[in-house]
Structures are given as C-alpha cells and as structure tokens.
Fold this sequence. Notes:
Elements: E1 6-7, E2 19-25, E3 34-40, H1 47-69
Antiparallel strand pairs: 1-2, 2-3
Amino acid sequence: MAQGFVIVDEDKRYAENINAVSTGFRSYDFGEPVAISCGATPDMLSYERMQDEVGPKLRDRVKELERALGLPSVLVNRG
C-alpha cells in the first residue's frame, strides 16, 4: 500500500490462475471507494512485472485521473 498499489499474496488469492494488481479510486459520484485493477494469467503478468511495471503505471494513471477531476488522492483519504 505504501507504493500506491497492492498485490495480494499468492497464498491468499481467490483464483490461483490470475495475477492482479490494484489501486484505490474515490469519486464524489460514487458512494464509496472502488478498486481499479489489472489482471492476467501468471505467464503474462508475473509478480515482478506487477511490482516493477504495471503497479506503478496503474497508480500513476489513477493519480492523473484524480488530478484531472480535481479529486484528492484516495490514499490520503484512508481512515
């Protein structure tokens, strides 16, 4: 979470054949925060790729969306 995205530990995943990375987003149009995720099979989306490439890009795109909409970061609004 400190990096602005999360990856669920392999032993806690709902489906073992899907890797996914997620970050939070909150819009005033929604009643509560939502997760924006990117997932694929492990051969297409390795842990290293989630950590080094996809997670940071997902976080950065959501930050851009928040700025464009004039919203504070959902990471700041945790509570």
